[in-house]
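Friendly challenge for the regulars: who can give me the structure tokens for this chain first? No prize, just bragging rights.
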Amino acid sequence: MVIAARPMTAPEFAAMEQGNSFDELLRGALIQMPPPGARHGRLQARMVRLLADHFEARRLGTVTSGSGIWIQTNPDTVLAPDVALFLGDPEAGVDEPEGYERRIPALVVEIISPSDSFSMVEDKIMTYLNAGVPAVAALDPRRKRLSIYDQARNVRTLDESMTWSDAALLPDFALPIALIFD
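First reply, four minutes later:
Bragging rights claimed.
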């Protein structure tokens, strides 16, 4: 649900009292969604673990889940991707600044929920790509597929029989799609 009287800024959004919804700020508009369901949560935790086991264990990057990323200003956009990968030396949690992340992640993973409309998912994917995120992966639990969108707007869709790898973006990483859904 979109709630808009006037464009909201990221600092105003950060100061809001959190209720029972999962909120994001999209081009100054407050977007309220119900909390994700159990399957969504399990898939989100699995994707975090699979990416962290590779990238954090090798000190190649940091994986976050559901943390706000301020990716656009004027009007402000703060999205909370299900999973985000930031490449580079990981920061110790206590040394990280408070507030929304301002770096652009190398990868965002969004898990499609039953309540998500196609246009909303597509809008978020394009927002991430327009902000400079090199790759956005949309995980479709119902179809057991992973679709990866890149900066050239190419889409590669992988099913359970395939393996996800991208040597240029994700060094030495290969993920059999079946592992996500096992």
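The radius of gyration is 16 Å. The mean pLDDT is 87. Your move, everyone else.
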